[in-house]
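Help wanted!
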Amino acid sequence: MADQPRTAPARPGTSAAAPGRIPTSLTQGTGSATTKGGIGESTLRPDGILKVTGEFAYSSDLWHEDMLWGYTLRSTVAHARILSIDTGEALATSGVYAVLTYDDLPTEVKNYGLEIRDTPVLAHGKVRHHGEPVALVAADHPETARRAAAKIRVEYEELPVVTDEASATAPDAILVHEGRDDHHSGHVPHPNVVHRQPIVRGDADAAAARADVVVRGDYVFGMQDQAFLGPESGLAVPAEDGGVDLYVATQWLHSDLRQIAPVLGLPESKVRMTLSGVGGAFGGREDLSMQIHGCLLALRTGKPVKIVYNRFESFFGHVHRHPARLRYEHGATRDGKLTHVRCRIVLDGGAYASASPAVVGNAASLSIGPYVVDDVDIEALALYTNNPPCGAMRGFGAVQACFAYEAQMDKVAAELDLDPVEFRQRNAMEQGTIMPTGQPVDSPAPVAELLRRVKAMPLPPEQQWRTTEGADVRALPGGLSNTTHGEGVVRGVGYAVGIKNVGFSEGFDDYSTARVRIEVINGEPVATVHTAMAEVGQGGVTVHAQIARSELGVTQVTIQPADTRVGSAGSTSASRQTYMTGGAVKNTCEAVREKVLDLGRRRFGTYHPAWATAELLLEGGRVVTDGGEALADIADVLGDESVDLELEFRHRPTQAFDLRTGQGNGHVQYSFAAHRAVVEVDTELGLVKVVELACAQDVGKALNPLSVVGQIQGGTTQGLGVAVMEEIVVDPKTAKVRNPSFTDYLIPTILDTPTIPVDVLELADEHAPYGLRGVGEAPTLSSTPAVLAAIRQATGLELNRTPVRPEHLTGA
Amino acid sequence: MRVTMTVNGRPQEADDVWEGESLLYVLRERMGLPGSKNACEQGECGSCTVRLDGVPVCSCLVAAGQAQDREVTTVEGLSGEDGELCTVQQAFVDAGAVQCGFCTPGLLVAADELLERNPEPTDGDIREALSGNLCRCTGYEKILDAVRLAAARTGQAV
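Answered by r_m:
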């Protein structure tokens, strides 16, 4: 029949037994005789060539003979009782192999969640947000699966929605989760509050009495989407032992595994996970998407099942950045010193908890920014509402706070008639400063220096759009829409700086595991590194190879695909992976090196006294003394033997924040970045052109300078996006998402993005491997408020919300 | 239906193609060429960019039947017969223009076409030519570096 889609035939060249296009190991030499390829060099990505030839196997590229396509039916309303689900017509569709609902879940475990297991695998009796999964279909063609899902009849009885603090915490508010009994439910002021964290230190009232100026502001931060380009996808293959092999794009394999296995009723050993190529993440893959759904369909049908979201579904398939309402009060004395800060941060967590509790902890503890303030009164909380669930996104609670406290810093500076950079520098934290939580900052905190550096960069010339013929509209607000040739265009410059924690905080047992082997292949020592680290684009695989070369003196390094056959690496989140899994690789390499040296001492120790007395290193394929004398080739030391170790690595332990006072040594490390934004605003049409976005950041130690700059520029651009264009718009009456597409949710193009000069500072943190500092998130914080500050300077408007839209600039 | 086209210089055919299938789907799922990417499937992101008779198009917006008897070039067709990277591919690797890499195939096809018709593009030209290709990781600076590098290397080679 012509309009009945049929499945694709077997791909030429793929075997029937094994899935096609699964990840392979990456082997990389140094690429050049003159470089060592170790840490501190800008070595190239070991997966770079696969990625430019189109051969790199992303999770949406997976393929298996006889595979089915899975599809998820999602709720069309935000809050409703499900009266009935009729799957009969869908099941009768030719080409359909299975239709699953809540009633088909195989065990008593029917929910999952990162911290609180409140998220149904498939809706049961009720849906709590627009786009919640209700049913699953497996069919032999993706279009057949979609059409069959459209034939599932779901009868909803709509319920009132709660969408903001007022509606969610009203005395008679409908409860998003009735009968909560999670570990936060006992201390929250209302069942529709996921978690609340106050921080009280000093005496804000007494300090306020000393203030010469007091500035207050209310701020609104819109809902941002991670908008990673590789859609949620994966392939689940049923195994002969009753288990399942899952190939998937995620940020943390072992966290997924812990949530998946109980729902399937399988021991974790029978759910074997392998990381497929990941097309970006930015926090949006911390929560599960298709993992359990794909496995359920595969186990039900006995066939491999691939699920690939399209962009529309992706907007419903992952959590977003929490939108926030923030109220701040800053006081300062006439000589430009902050007296106190009071603030209240209300985050909208949406229908399920996801990472909300941890986001609250970050927002509270980082709420005053990188400044010295001894007297604070802080409150942060996250709501349960019927809006889309929100959770992790790059910057994780620190982003929303930075937008507000930096706007406040500009306002206070203006009240005091001080230069905004000078005012920030007078109050900048430094090593030894006490955080609002009572925790001392025990490594370099070059806040004033970063501001100095970013201010010292040369400003871009005025009117760069001017050409001999007139104007290059591509460099003007409105761009190729050709809306101005410079008329009404005003320039502004703004500054901002931020502080982000690195690693998992608040007492979490944060560790990573690395397995390292060294052996002789074709006469040459070769290292193999195996971790479960999710390479999501950040370049972890690049630095792992660099670390192995530096520590083991080899040139050839093989990076094994990440999977659950090795211990957990923790999440590719919180700017932590180079610190944590990089640290784990370093730590294991050091232990491997000791074993190699022991072997050498046993074999060759009698030939040279230095084996017993000198500090020994592995360099250039040889065992050398710290004086540079070569004692033996590593290949001769090893012979036919190999050394193979798997070890865990932990950062310093942290403490929970006190639930009443917020006191506690909750964080491991901080990361700082400062931005200067230069914008040009068409004040008649309200259009903004960001001309330049300069950044200075301390990275402790740049293990790969090229990648570090790439991270800073990418993070800066995501901050630019939420300053002037990016926002998921949710209808306040229906709680339905209005713009789930790249047509209506705009992320910066290459024409929207300015030049991004970067100044990298390297002040070592003595507690961290190589002194490094996590890099990825800090640039996302200060970018947004710097752009807003520049627009305020250009327009004189207050602008208390982000993103800024044209109507905010024209008053239309 | 059966669809026949020339892909990267080689004749390809696919049977049982449903009329609603895009060129992107047929390349990825029926011809074993998943290099072209599926980031939005709505013509906004450029990750599926291929050349159809030389012209860059979003293959997600082209029905497979529209490619009947036509020439298609995908990212898999950019490198040489011996696997040697083309100038733009090598420049993307060298300049650090690749992070997650999901936008990379579409950007490579677009940048290669730009340099073919404009071997010495200004920054404005590069930005305009690549403005239909979204990247979420890099902030585009290294992509600009890569295209400038490829242009410089091409100039030197002449």
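OP: Thanks! One thing I noticed: Helices of chain B lie at 23-30, 87-95, 104-117, 123-129, 141-157.
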